[in-house]
Design goal:
The protein is an alpha/beta fold and about 220 residues long. It has helices at about 10-20, 30-35, 40-50, 65-80, 90-100, 115-125, 130-135, 140-155, 170-180, 190-195, 200-220; strands at about 1-5, 25, 55-60, 85, 105-110, 125-130, 160-165, 185. The chain contains eleven helices and eight strands. It has an eight-stranded parallel beta barrel with strand order 1-2-3-4-5-6-7-8, surrounded by six helices. The longest helix has 24 residues, at about 200-220. The structure holds SN-glycerol-3-phosphate. SN-glycerol-3-phosphate binds near residues 28, 131 and 165.
Length: about 220
C-alpha cells in the first residue's frame, strides 16, 4: 500500500518527503485554509509537488460540472501533472466522465459508501477516496467500506485505485493495508506515530549504551 501525506503544510511535507515513505500528497480546501492566508495557493501546491515529486491531488471548489472543468483546466495550466480532486456529487461524476475522456487523472473525494465508489469508478475515476475517519466519527465502521470496495473490485475487476482517506491514527493505516487499499493518505501526526514503537527507542538506547561501555573497555585494554 502506498502512503500519501494529507497536508498542505510545507514543513510537514518537507520532513516526511525526506524520509522516502510517501509517493504523493493530497490537499483539500480545508487543509489549504489552515495555512498562512498570505501564501499564494498555486505557488504552495507547485512547491509541494516539487518536494514530493509524485501524486498531487488538487481539489476544485465549484459544484457545477462546467465550473469544475474550468477549474481543472486552470489547475493543469500551472501543474500539468495534477490529479483533479472532484467531490462525489452527480455534477462531479459528469466532470469525471469528461476529464477521463481527456485522459486527465481524477480523484473522487468525499466517498462514504461502496455504491458511491462504484459510481465514481464507472464515471472513470482514477482514484476513489473513501473517508474512513468521518464514518467512524458518526458511529459507522469506516474501514468496512474499504473492505467492501476491495471485495467488489476484486470480484468484478474494477480499475479505480482505492484510496483510504480521513485517517485518524496508526491503526487506521494498518487496517487500510489489511483491507487492501491501494493507497492511504494520512495526516502528519498519525503517519509519524505509525513509525514509532517504544521498543525501538529502548532497543536503540541499550545498543548505544552497550557500545559506549565496550568502547571504554577497549580503551582500557588498548
Ligand atoms: O483529504 C481528504 C481527507 O483525508 C480528509 O480527512 O481528517 O478531514 O476527515 P479529515
Amino acid at each position: 500500500m502506498e502512503l500519501y501525506l494529507d497536508s498542505a503544510n510545507l514543513n510537514e511535507i518537507r520532513e516526511v518527503a525526506a524520509l522516502g515513505i510517501i509517493s504523493g500528497v493530497t490537499t483539500n480546501p480545508s487543509l489549504i485554509a489552515k495555512e498562512d492566508p498570505t501564501v499564494d495557493v498555486k505557488e504552495r501546491i507547485k512547491e509541494i509537488h516539487t518536494l514530493v515529486g509524485g501524486h498531487t491531488s488538487v481539489e476544485v471548489v465549484s459544484t457545477d460540472t462546467a465550473g469544475m472543468l474550468k477549474e481543472a483546466e486552470e489547475i493543469l495550466k500551472w501543474l500539468p501533472n495534477a490529479t483533479i480532486k472532484i467531490p462525489m456529487i452527480p455534477t462531479g461524476l459528469a466532470a469525471v466522465k469528461e476529464l477521463t475522456r481527456q485522459n486527465i487523472p481524477t480523484n473522487v473525494t468525499l466517498s462514504f459508501s461502496a455504491t458511491q465508489a462504484l459510481a465514481a469508478n464507472n464515471a472513470g475515476a482514477t482514484y476513489v477516496s473513501v473517508f474512513v475517519g468521518r464514518l467512524d466519527d458518526i458511529g459507522y465502521d469506516g474501514m468496512s467500506v474499504v473492505r467492501d470496495v476491495r471485495a467488489i473490485w476484486d470480484m468484478q475487476g474494477l480499475p479505480s485505485l482505492i484510496l483510504a482517506a480521513s485517517i485518524r491514527h496508526p491503526i487506521h493505516i494498518l487496517e487500510a493495508a489489511k483491507a487492501g487499499a491501494d493507497i492511504s493518505t494520512c495526516p502528519y501526526k498519525p503517519l509519524m506515530q505509525s513509525l514509532k514503537n517504544p521498543l525501538t527507542d529502548a532497543g536503540l538506547k541499550a545498543f548505544l549504551a552497550d557500545y559506549e561501555k565496550w568502547k571504554k573497555e577497549v580503551e582500557k585494554v588498548g
